[in-house]
Amino acid sequence: MASRMQYCYNHVLPLTAMVAVECTNVGLNVLFKEATAKGMNRYIFITYSYAVGTLLLLPLSFIFPSSRTVIPSLKFHLGSRIFLLGLIGYLAQICAYKGMDYSSPTLASAISNLEPAFTFILAVLFRLETVALRSSSSQAKIIGTIASISGALLVVLYKGPKVLVQWPLESSEPNWVISGILLATAYLLFSIWYIVQTQVLEIYPAELIVALFYNLCGAIISVPVSLITQPKLSSWILRPSVAVIAVLYSGVFQSFSSLVVTWGLHLKGPVYVAIFSPVSIAIAAFMSAIFLDDSLHLGRY
Predict the structure, then answer these.
(1) Which residues form the EamA domain (predicted)?
(2) How many CB atoms lie under 10 A from the CB of residue 103?
(3) Which of 5, 42, 97, 187 has the most CB atoms lying inside 10 A of its own CB?
(4) pTM for the whole thing?
């Protein structure tokens, strides 16, 4: 019985949790696209998301304290790394949301094919992953890396026919390429985030606290940027609309995602977490076609 529970915790639960995270991320992307189409500013959206996530995780850190008996104190070098996490995460979201402004959540999910490739390469460089060319596992990861990069390039560069729905995409061809560059940058930053997060957890193995301080640092970084870009207080007022739903959804599920991803990184490592990114492609294509009237194409359009 104990071995079965251990198996579920080490294998079944991480798989289920990562798939759930990808599903919630796609839902967030669709809501963000809809909210910004109605006038929501992306900088304010990110700020509210971090703030709501921080407020949700703060009481949880007291309700569910770390079960580990030995947790090092938060010193400057550790705090600076967590702040770096917040900065990387914030920049990644800016690039991702700006990229979606030029295209759609479907492209964002398709470009996420790059995330496992970037993460695997970085994990090897930082010695978090070993490569043995005769190992079937390493061979599969190398082939997967090549396939991921090829798939992302295909989506951005190949013009294919429509395969679902008749509505045209709003993005023009130049914007589609710019979007691909921005999204690729975002997923590179997310991969770096995974690596830094893994290193932080090796020093400070308290997932909930790390997730809390990550969201807090993200909020601290995003507030001045948002105030500079949107100094009018009227821009910060959330009126009953899809924007409110998007902000609440983002705050709740961003805290959930950051906590689950942090736990997954600590338990399974960065490559395992990143390989679930392509799961979002089919979900995003379906949701974008239903809720955003996007056409589904082979390749670009």
Answers:
(1) 27-156, 181-298
(2) 27
(3) 187
(4) 0.81
